[in-house]
Every structure is written in C-alpha cells, then in structure tokens.
Amino acid sequence: MAGSSRTGADDDSANESNGTATTMSGSDTERDDESPPDLASSPFKEGEKVLAFHSCHIYEAKVKKVDYQRKQWRYNIHYLEFCLKNFLFCISLNSWDEWVGVDRLLKYTEENIERQEANNKKQGLEKNIKAGRGSQVKPKSSNAPRGKKRKSDSAIKEKDALPTEKLVSIHIPTTLKKQLIHDCEYITHLGKLVKLPRSPTVEEILQKYFDHRLKKDGSAEPVKEIMQGLRSYFDKALPLMLLYKSERPQYEEAVGDKVLPACVYGAEHLLRLFVKLPELLFHVNIEEETLTELQHNLVDFLRFLQKNQNTFFLSAYQMLSD
C-alpha cells in the first residue's frame, strides 16, 4: 500500500509538473499574442489630423503618439485651438492633450466633417471649422451688399475688441479649462444647473486660500486685499457677465436683493470670473509692479483651486426642474 501511495504521489507530481509546463507554455503563447503589432497596421498614424469625440461634441485634433496597450490601439491626441461661439466664455484649449481609443476618433474626411457639423449643430454648438467650410447664415431682412455688410461687421468687432497684448495674462490650468467646458455643456446643452446654495461658497473659498497663504507665508496682508477685491468683482460681475440665460431665473430666486452672490455661489461661477478678469483689469489704472504681483497671486490662487478641484467643484449638476 505504501508503494502504491508513493506511485500515486509520483503520478500527482508528474501531473502537477505537466500542468505547470502547460501553464508556462500558455503564458508564453499569451505573451507572443500580446506583442505589439506593426505600427503600420494602426488605423491612425502619428501626425494625422483627425476628428475626436469629447463629451457629446466632435472636435478637430492631431495624433501626437501611437501606442498599443492591453490588446488595443491608444492615441495621444492634441486638440486644435478652438473657440466656441455660443459659450459665455471664449476658451482656448491649445494645450489640451489626452489619450483616447479608436472609438473616440474619426478620419478627417469630407463625409466625417459633415457628420461633425451636423452633430455639433444638433447639440447647439457653433464650431469654428476650417475657413471656407462653415456656411454663413444670412440675415433674413437685409438689403445691404454682401461685401459692405461683412466689412461693417468686421469694423464693429475690431472697434469692440480689446488689444490682447495689453491684457493681463492669467494662465488657467488645463484641468480647470476642462472644468469650464463641462460647466458650459451641463448648462447650455444638457439643461442642468448648479444646485444653490453651494458649499463651499465663494466667500469660504477665498477665506480658505487666505488661511492657506497665512500658514505658508506667516503674513498675507497683500493677499487679503486681493481676496477682498476678487469678492467685490465677483459680486458685481456675476449678474452682468457670469450667468448663462437659463441661470437667470435661479439667480433672481436665490439672490435677488436679499444676499450677496459670494455667499450663495461656489467655485463653478468663481472660475468663470477668471476668464473675464483680463478684460475687467484692462480698465483699471494699476502700476506695473503692482500688476505683476497681482498676476502672480491670481495664478497661485488658480493653482489652489486646481489642487482642491475635487473638493470645491460639483461632479454632477441638477436638472432645471429639480
């Protein structure tokens, strides 16, 4: 019986050994299968101009890198600079890159460009597509010659436009630019609103930043003045230039003449102010040295917002009817 048991044990060991060999062989086969295919077989190439899905819209982009991960092609794309006309803010995403899969990309063909235009029009988005492709909507009642009309419109825009070289440069981090894009899409395309009152409020966020600087620097009197200035700008600018049309009834109900906006609104609307600040500061007489210090502190404040983005900003908005 002992011999029989030993033989059985030997058989089991042999089976285990064979099983191990089989498993190792299978692993080798899997590794062989997972070896990256030739780049030439990728549907999209480095440097290729493409159309990319982001949220519910389609944008122009360029493939910067191609990689093969977990048995699928991945592409690092660079969104080409664009400005969304029906945004409350004109936002440049010139430095926005991200990795996407094949399902997010389309070939840059006439057929897909038409698909892009139709999709973005359906979403209520006016997109600046390559010059000459977009169709101009003619006014229904206008007897002015086409050339003169265009010249007149251009002259008005030039007159109203501020000289960009004289505007204060305030760099908004890419993740916060994305926040602005999502904010607009939630409100203008999905019919949602920021639930009010917010927590933390603008007033509380400004205080948190002051406390942060006080702890870091030991003294923060200049920062205190800047935070007071930001609050003042926010309270005055919100009803004039920081609200979308669909948000106005909510503003009248939540704020009206009862309370200051900084005590009701939060990071979502405060971030919008930073897009408008260069224009607002253009009309203020500030010495160059003071302006440089202000610019430095505003950029540092934006970094503070970015660091606390998950805490300060909403991840979901409410429906208008909620």
Automatic annotation (TrEMBL):
One biological process term in Gene Ontology: regulation of DNA-templated transcription
Chain intervals with Basic and acidic residues compositional bias: 117-129
Domain MRG: 148-318
Pfam families xref list: MRG
GO molecular function: promoter-specific chromatin binding
Subcellular localization: Nucleus
InterPro entries, per database record: Chromo-like_dom_sf (IPR016197), MRG (IPR008676), MRG_C_sf (IPR038217), MRG_dom (IPR026541)
Entry-linked SUPFAM superfamilies: Chromo domain-like (SSF54160)
KW Transcription regulation (keyword) present: yes
Region spans: Disordered: 1-43, 117-156
Domain of life the protein comes from: Eukaryota
Compositional bias (Polar residues): 15-27
Keywords, ordered alphabetically: Chromatin regulator, Nucleus, Transcription, Transcription regulation
Cellular component GO terms held in the UniProt record: histone acetyltransferase complex; nucleus
PANTHER family in alphabetical order: MORTALITY FACTOR 4-LIKE PROTEIN, PROTEIN MRG2
UniProt-recorded name of the protein: MRG domain-containing protein
Source organism phylogeny: Eukaryota, Viridiplantae, Streptophyta, Embryophyta, Tracheophyta
